[in-house]
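Subgroup meeting minutes
Present: P.N., E.W., G.H.
Scribe: E.W.

1. P.N. recapped why we're keeping a running log of single-chain structure predictions: easier to compare across weeks, and new members can see raw inputs and outputs side by side.
2. G.H. added today's entry (324 aa).
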Amino acid sequence: MRSRNPALMIAAATAMSLAAGNACAQSFPTKPIRMLVGYPPGGPTDIVARIAGQKLAEAFGQQVVIDNRSGAGGTVALDIGARATPDGHTLMLGANGEISISPSLYTKLPFSVDRDLAPVIQLANSALVMVVFPGLPAQTTKELVALARAKPGTINAASSGTGSTAHLCMELLRMMAKIDLVHVPYKGAAPALTDVIGGHAHLIVTGISGTLPHVKAGRLRPLGVTSEKRQPSLPDVPAIGEAVPGYEVTSWYGLFVPAATPRAVVARLHAESTRALASQDMKDRLAQQGFDPVGGDPEVFRKFIRSETAKWAQVIKTAGVRVE
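Output recorded in log:
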């Protein structure tokens, strides 16, 4: 006679589900893996995706295809990924902008980060740098703050667009230092940086790698990095937090899958990603591009995402940032 005990039935169903998940993980992957990136080729998110994708391809013996689907601040790719078959063959390389900032910028996102995406691992961090037009009479962050207080509303801060990490870095600085900066949004970091070099805007917070040639040539003056500590690529440039205590921002990049992906498959992806991050080859390749490897447990990554989301939600609300 079959047992009608609900507890036994639930336990049996759970055991069957776990067995199926483990079997799926052992055979995974069975075909090429697609890694969605929400930005065009050549940007920082794409660079991290290609470095990680190559190492995962080596580990799994399957091709990892980078699929660039730009649009709506990186959220187009996440929407596609959230609706993909949850079998581990569709990954998303997400960054802080679309993961932790977009939920507070866009009122009608077609997906929920917390509900529809499962974090696998935080792959890397990178600091940003605040650079100014050399003609601006400020040699340090402290002098910039003093100048902004003495002449409120006269310093133009360029960004790669309203709601971008660069923009919100500036808004956070404005709030914490209690200064008045004029935000000037551009359609991308390149035209914004060009206008700072030309003196049409006074400062920008942007990626370190893209500014180094201009800093070395004297076309830009670095005032501070956004990380807690100084960066090896700019050892003489202090952290902004040395002048504005508590100020710290990093761009971060992580691997995600659709939420319903079997836990055993997520564990396999996490294990191989952790092994890749520990390799000297990947460490060197990330370092050459200005990234620091991170790693860690998926749940730790989830908690970090929630704290970042709360942080930027407060900045966006206080600054009254709006996107069309």
